[in-house]
Amino acid sequence: PLAGMKETEEIVKSEICTSMTFIIRCPAALTSTFQDYPVTLPVTSAVADLKAHIEREHPCRPMVDDQRLVFRGQLLNDRLSLREIMQKYPGEDALIVHLVLRSGNYDVLLD
After folding, report:
1. What local confidence, expressed as pLDDT, does residue 9 receive?
2. Which residues contact 9 (CB under 8 A, 6 or more apart)?
3. I need a labelling partner for 24 at 20 to 30 A (CA). Which of 10, 30, 45, 50 fits?
4. DSSP-assigned letter for residue 73
């Protein structure tokens, strides 16, 4: 009986959770005035959507093509959905994603 209750709780949690928060961390930005950057998006979004959001909203406005997002040591595929990431790591309120900038166009971040 307890196992069935736990499964039901997981189903309810997954149905209730409609958005997910990521903490975007960029090492170059940490040496300047920028802090970790929180982003909350619908779980139906893809990693590509997260990159587009970062390009529009992050203080250094890195172009999508220059962004590499790394989560737990693995490069995130642009087609991966945020729901898939959430299902692999349930119960975490916010997930830290490292933003690596491919181009040298962002030297302005360094003090």
Report:
1. 47
2. none
3. 10
4. T
